[in-house]
Amino acid sequence: MASNYVSRMGLDRRRWLKLCVSSGLAASLPGALVGAQSSPRACSPPIPQNREPSNGGLCPYPIPWLDKNGNHNQAAMPNVELSSIYHFKGKLARCSGFHGMGTDDKGNRLAWGTPTTDYSYMAGEYWAARQPRQGIFAHT
Amino acid sequence: MPVPSNGLTFSSDGKMATLQVSNAAIIDQPRWPAMDAESTPAFLDFRLVFTATDEPVKYEDPMRQYRFEGVKATAQLEATVRVPSIDFAFKTDPLETSKSDFGVMGTEVNGRYYGS
Fold first, then answer.
1. What's the rounded Cα separation, in Å, for the pair B16 and B4?
2. Is-contact B10 B37, C-beta < 8 A?
């Protein structure tokens, strides 16, 4: 369900939408990947202090049979798992196959969208760190 | 990606949902899915609107423990993307000019919630 967009001048599956494909990933990129100092993701399991229990982190579970980012390998379509979060209940919407036009900063008119330009929202309860949590998430 | 509580809104009748995200940190990775595909930081603003139809859908797989119940929906999107490292920006035409081939909106249960 990779997102891909602008389809011309090499702006197809590459530019824009590798862009989006990876938005969730990039949004959560730890400093470890971009700098010398690593900083854990906000939802990573905390290191217990003072003998506190360790029950895992707040990150939602990925869908077991999909990749960790919930994309790349399953386009949105009927009769597939549409959520990117496992152990989830709540509101969900998903769409794919956008078509449209746009303009770049040089004034060039470009078409965007492919069958795998894919977006969703998930809003509700998910299970993490052995407790129910509330959250709103988007997949792009 | 996590979305602030004001990033997802619904119409009073629940038939229209708007997802709006600003300045999302994303990456531009032209050669994906090559394992060594280089990536550069980029930023995305988008507004996505789902509008429900009256056509019900239900997707369920007991083996994989998921159930989606809802309706087919139309979806429209407008977005702006910026890739500072290559001085590139792109803005789609207004939302009303876009269309999608597939869309659904409803409710989902999966995993430990599937049996409930």
1. 18
2. no
Structure tokens at A14: 């590459």
How confident is the model over B48-78, as pLDDT tens digits? 999 999 999 999 999 999 999 999 999 999 9
Asked casually if ipTM beats, i.e. exceeds, 0.90, the reply is: yes
Contact between chains at B17 and A65 (C-beta distance less than 8 A): no
A1 touches chain B (CB under 8 A): no
Nearest CA-CA distance, residue B12 and chain A, Å: 15
Q: End-to-end distance of chain A based on CA atoms, in angstroms?
A: 9
- C-alpha span between B73 and A54 (Å, rounded): 42
How far apart (Å, rounded) are the C-alpha atoms in residues A70 and B101?
Answer: 20
CB neighbour list of residue B12: distance below 8 Å, 6 or more residues apart: none
> Looking at the partner chain, which of A13, A26, A121 has a beta carbon nearest the beta carbon of B26?
A26
Contact B66, B11 (CB under 8 A): no
Query: Among B108, B31, B28, which residue's Cα sits nearest to residue B67?
Result: B108
